[in-house]
Structure formats: structure tokens, C-alpha cells
Amino acid sequence: MTCRNSAGSYACACDPGFSLQTDNSTCADLNECNAANGGCAEFCTNTYGSYHCSCKPGSELEANNRLCKDIDECAVNNGGCGQNCKNTAGSFECSCNPGYAMMFNSVTCLPCGGNYSALEGSLSSPGYPYVGFGTSEPCVWNISAPDGYNRVNLTCLSVRFNDVGTCDVGSLTVTSLPSSTRTWCSTPASSFFGGKSMLLEYFNNATGPDTGFHCHYAAAYKKTLIMTPARANVVSPNDAAGFYVNNANHTYIVQAPSTSRICLEFLSFSLESTSDCSKDYVAVYDGELVTAPQIGKFCGSSIPAKVNSSANGMVISFISDGDTVDRGFSGIYTAKSALNFVC
């Protein structure tokens, strides 16, 4: 406050930011924000003897200290986004590249879903082996068996779901197209044998800290043929290059007339060789089931001798693992009268 003397009198005056009261001798703070918001574009805050303008989050004052301008959060450290940052009015948005999912913290992107068509591979929940990462949307994997294979086998090595069975916290749904579906949310998963394609859908709402999974998939070939002709060829399931496929289970069930016996002759034979034929092999059974007595089990590159059944049924089963492949085998069976039977 200041006092100004004049002829025969005086007058009081207030400093900037204050107003003279009705007694003409005291000053009170002037609330500049009451008049046109103090000239501020957004917020006006009165202070003792002054005021200042401020802006909404995501904006900042211009040089005149009254108007507001948008802050480009993406210009500094990519806005904290793990992958893509998009500036918006007063804010910003993070997004993920295809094949990634946004976690519930809205900034972190982790691998999530995708399309697979390999002989084998692994699939994991986002962040595995760490578990409990919530996803803003379900992760979906689409697995298709490559050409020459007719099924996908899935083995889940680790599945953890901190759920009471309602599947509200987290779940893993496996669909073997076209129709078979299984969902896990509280019990451990093991093996799942599907068709030529398989869909996996994983969900986690981030409230289950012990939620996650790790699975292995492998393309396989499984086929069973009922053979009733008196004479027919049997061959391994080979690809276009002339090699048998991995993970195969190819079975011929020969059903001859009741008065017949069956003779099997191998014409060519080239399989992975092991001392106990435990990897790739052809097994022949004396009957129409693989539980029937085994006539022989063959592998390697030597053509086996002829084998025959004791009655009118025979199973010829070709099995391969996921390791070495070779040219496979070919053979021919003949159903002959049991009377004076000679193979």
C-alpha cells in the first residue's frame, strides 16, 4: 500500500493485485480469476497479490503464459511406449505391431499369437517364463499342419492357472478344427491331438499372478486304412521329395476272407536305423489289432524277409518320430487260402 499526500488531504493506493476497500484505507487481495478467467485459456489460480494460468494434463502454457498448446508426449522417449506411439489432443496412445499384444499397463508389448505352419515349435504366454502378464485382448495362435501332414499334436509342458474353475481370471482354449474344443483354467493340461489345424486362445485379466503356459506343437501324420482286396500294395506316407514324413502313424488293417492267411513281402525298405528300432519302424501284427501278437518290427536299410499271419487278419503299422527321415518302404500283401498255405 502507498499513501499519496495532496493539498489539504491524502489518498491511499494498493499495490498491483490488491484492491482498496470501502474504508479507503485497507487493501484486500484481488481475485483476478473472477474477471474473464484472468485471461487464461483453461485454468486460473488466484494467489496472494497475483494469479497464474495452467493447462490440462497433456498440454502446456505458451510463451504468453495464458494460452495452452498440446504436448507431443511421443517426442520424448517414444512416450514410454514399447513399440508405437501416437500423439492425440491432450494425451497419447501406445499400440503394438502385428503379432504382439498390449499388456494392461498400456505401454508394454509382448509376443502374442500368430500363424504357424512349421513341423514343430513352441508357444508361450506373453512374458513366459514369467507369469501373470495381463493382456488387453486375447492372444490367438493359428497352427496349420504343413503339406503332407494331416494333424497337429500339442503337448503343454507347463500350464499354471490361478483360477477356481470359472475361467474369469485366465484360460487357455484349444480348438481342433472343425469342432473339438477344450478349455483349461484350473487343471494342468497335457497332450491334445488335433486335426490338420488348431487354434489356441489365451486370456489373462492380470488378476491371476500365477497364470501362464508353455506348449510344444508338432505336425504329424495319422491314417488308418482298412484293406479288403485279396492283393494290394502298402507304402510309407512320403512327401513330394520322396521321403516319409515325420511324426507319422500310418496303419494298414488287412481283412481277408475267413479261410485265408496273409503273406506280406517288402519290395523296398529304407528307414532310420537304431539297434532296437525305437525311432522309425514298421511293425507287423498277427491279427486286426495292434494288441495282437507282433510278428516282427523292422528298421534300417535291409529288406526284411517275407512274413505271414496265422489267420485272416494282419496289421502293418508304420511309425516315425520327429528326427531323421529316409525313403521309406513299399510292399505287397497277398491273401491266400489257408489250405496248403505257402508265403
From TrEMBL:
Keywords: Disulfide bond, EGF-like domain, Glycoprotein, Repeat, Secreted, Signal. One of its GO terms (molecular function) is calcium ion binding. It is found in: Secreted. Residues 112-336 form the CUB domain. InterPro entries: cEGF (IPR026823), CUB_dom (IPR000859), EGF (IPR000742), EGF-like_Ca-bd_dom (IPR001881), EGF-type_Asp/Asn_hydroxyl_site (IPR000152), EGF_Ca-bd_CS (IPR018097), Growth_fac_rcpt_cys_sf (IPR009030), Sperma_CUB_dom_sf (IPR035914). Pfam families: cEGF (PF12662), CUB (PF00431), FXa_inhibition (PF14670). The keyword Metal-binding does not apply. Disulfide bonds join 112-139. Its main location: secreted. GO terms for cellular component: extracellular region. SMART domains: CUB, EGF, EGF_CA. It comes from the Eukaryota. The keyword ATP-binding does not apply. Signal peptide: none annotated. PANTHER family: CUB DOMAIN-CONTAINING PROTEIN, OVOCHYMASE-RELATED. This is Tolloid-like protein 2. It comes from Petromyzon marinus (Sea lamprey). The gene is LOC116945576.
